[in-house]
Amino acid sequence: MHVKCVCRDCTETDILASLQPLVDSDAWEMANLWMLPVPLSHPRQNSQRTNGVDYMQLLHNGLKSIYSICLALDCCDCLARMCRRTKELKARTVWLGHPEKCEEKYPKNAIKNQKYNFFTFVPGVLYQQFKFFLNLYFLVVACSQFVPSLKIGYLYTYWAPLGFVMAVTMVREAVDEVRRYQRDKEMNSQLYSKLTFSPHLFLFLSHYNVLLQNQRIPADMIFLRTSEKTGSCFIRTDQLDGETDWKLKVAVICTQRLPALGDLFSINAYVYAQKPQLDIHSFEGNFTREDGDPQIHESLSIDHTLWASTIVASGTVIGVVIYTGKETRSVLNTSSPKNKVGLLDLELNRLTKALFLAQVVLSIVMVALQGFVGPWFRNLFRFIVLFSYIIPISLRVNLDMGKSAYGWMIMKDENIPGTVVRTSTIPEELGRLVYLLTDKTGTLTQNEMIFKRLHLGTVSYGTDTMDEIQSHIGQSYAQPQPAQAPKAAAPKVRRSVSSRIHEAVKAIALCHNVTPVYESRANGETESTAAEADQDFSDDNRTYQASSPDEVALVRWTESVGLTLVNRDLTSLQLKTPAGQVLTYYILQIFPFTSESKRMGIIIREETTGDITFYMKGADVAMASIVQYNDWLEEECGNMAREGLRTLVVAKKSLSEEQYTDFENRYNQAKLSIHDRALKVSAVVESLEREMELLCLTGVEDQLQADVRPTLELLRNAGIKIWMLTGDKLETATCIAKSSHLVSRSQDIHVFRSVSNRGEAHLELNAFRRKHDCALVISGDSLEVCLRYYEHEFVELACQCPAVVCCRCSPTQKAQIVHLLKQHTANRTCAIGDGGNDVSMIQAADCGIGIEGKEGKQASLAADFSITQFKHIGRLLMVHGRNSYKRSAALGQFVMHRGMIISTMQAVFSSIFYFASVPLYQGFLMVGYSTIYTMFPVFSLVLDQDVKPEMALLYPELYKDLTKGRSLSFKTFLIWVLISIYQGGILMYGALVLFESEFVHVVAISFTALILTELLMVALNIRTWHWLMVLAEFFSLGCYIASLAFLNEYFDLGFITTPAFLWKVSVITVVSCLPLYIIKYLKRKFSPPSYSKLSS
Hints:
By secondary structure, the protein is of the alpha+beta class. It is 46% helix and 16% strand. Helix 33 (970-994) packs antiparallel against helix 37. Residues 1-53, 62-67, 69-85, 481-495 and 521-536 have low confidence and may be disordered.
């Protein structure tokens, strides 16, 4: 039933009128609800009054009561929604240089990775702790001790351990939060230059921000002005989208043409920007200048934007802030940090629920054996409290302290220097991983391209023969030599090879979008012309800018062999020869690289000769049908690809003046067409792309991170499936997958065709289903279509692949893939990356690892673990992951055993003494048992290891056993339950059989045997002894022996010094432990675990 709120101007009459139609249909149910006789309006009745009662009036009054209640509830809902509501994202008008004109308040420009604030810390941590059954249970038990009839022992025996647990947890969380706060403060305290007349210390909308080369952009801005003469600049976006290509950005024409920088404050202009959204590849807006006559309107697109977390790669830029803080594209694509809970914690939580069920059943049995006499319900609760040690509160303390110890060991490991544990609650997750999702750029690769191979068809040049190419280039541009007597035909062959090398190198030096930059020009010397700047051409500070690192690698290589790109603008470029001569070429047309065409071209005119040449380079699949027939291109491309090289085919075509004029006319006409402009332009360009002369094939290598190949092989052998998620192009991603051996040489690769609708996705999935044992390569767009229509089928097929490569992935898509794997496979996932675009993926995974490298610290700050090199992940998982999981599993089960054994003794004691709900051990004995007497030896299990680190790295197959969760399961738990019942029964019955006249002797014999049994059981479970373990054993034993002198309240000091006491304790202890030692020996002999076989 829907009742409108009073704040929406609804009256009582309106509400009742809306409810009136319900009377006939629902009155029967309403009457039953109010426990009234059936209303007369119901079809089963015939009159309106019965026994003098007007039921319709009662119904009307009841409906009015409902109305009043609904009004109150709905008003409360409105108030709650007002408190909870998130601010709606809106489009905005940003006045240049006038933040006071902004009508609304916008978020501060700050990074926040904290989970809590000052007010939510305590309630947040308490909620995270008490949502676990274990802690909630002990809170209830501790509170029950305030009730006199339920009180079993001293209050401190229940509240002290619980308070200690909460204190340890809060201190650990507080330390983590303070570290996050300090890291955020460091990032938010970075200083930037700002043009303003106002005294604001922070960046707000409308502020002008001045950014220098290599400076990170702090907020989303519109690009207004640059120091570059061309009115454009390059930015690096690797932190945002993972692409290493430099993006060309164009300043707003109106502001770029202003005579002076100060004129930005004298104009009356504003930017209209669309509301903030996730898409980092699109933007719609307008720039308007109102003080002009007429007004100036300029359309704004993605080319005019400078998104936060990108880096200025060239010149000095000035922008106006349009989005700040959580409204920036980078933050919108980043998920908020969540509290991660390890799988081992969830498993232990389930086991504690099973123990609680056993505890309740045991208590009911005790009360039933009493015959449910007297206040049996109170006795039931007393038994529950009495057996509460079945679920030991020290379990959480020991596990949390163990996690801190594992984190300390990881950070102190000299083999993985610089590793930081930022989330100390999930180190065991490192030992349970099945899926590893990795970024490409900066994670697997160094993002450094090196030219490796030049192939001319008949001859190939590698890194060791580049000096020959340099010699040929030098000869080609040398001054004419005096004529010499002709010799054999060999010089003619050499001249032919020399000519081909010259043409190939020249084509590579001309066909690109690279721009040289000189540091000396960045300091104000931008007005110098190319002719005046000849001395700058030899400047050691020359750097190259380009939209692709491949382009830069090629141009650097031509520089190394003698042909140097020294200057470029929108209309021309200049090359310097080995002899120092500067050659000028005019750029007539340029056709940029696109994912669809897979090639780029340029038409240039040489200044000295006037010759027009069309150069083109691209992927072999695109160029094979364009170049003239040859018999070597396909084979050599395959050879280079197998070496992990990225190949480009270079070709040329000479054009006459008439041919070019005809082309230019058709090209310009196609660009002016309104309908199908892209198709017409493409058709005109393709008319030139016929029978081109094949010049050469180039091979460039993207340098992999150190030891990436052996690390990936190690992870594969460990049974971990690796998915590479990258924002880069499909070809680049495939090439890196091959070169890094993510995809082995024997495996086929299935490239998922681009699909745009349900039918295409269905056909392509069927084609993929027929493939077996092949790696999958899929683009982000196709992935989105598949997940929209065939999510379950796609994930099922992809999970069967040995490796998956997802290219052109947005940050949100990366996180979506992680969620899909967690949802459909129920396996543990790990995400590793180094850029801001990887943060969502890292935070979504069960275990997030950030690499601190060239691309900044954003990923490492948001990650659970931070490493400095990809190769460190091998040791992190194989050694520390294994040890953390194995140790926590042993520690958790042993602590539960420690509680179950004393609860078994209590049950035996109560059953013998007429099922009385009286504690066997009281006061300090119970506190000492779980702390000073047994804590140190039990906690020393965090130093145990079943396999040496070298062995774990040598045999990564051992890791597969960990993912099956056999170290902590219901099977192992039941084994420990049986051990506890056996030992508890032996200890209690033995003490009862052997004790003499006084009951206090039972306590002394059973408690001493219990302590010795626990110490011996710790020794039984240790696989590799550490000197601290030995110290813990003897220290605890010494503490117990020393404390006997002060325990006269519980023990008969005269009895415990007699030989009778010693032999009785010894016999009981031997009977409780010896069978277990024998069973362990037989098991190791006849059914040893896999790690023990390797150790032997």
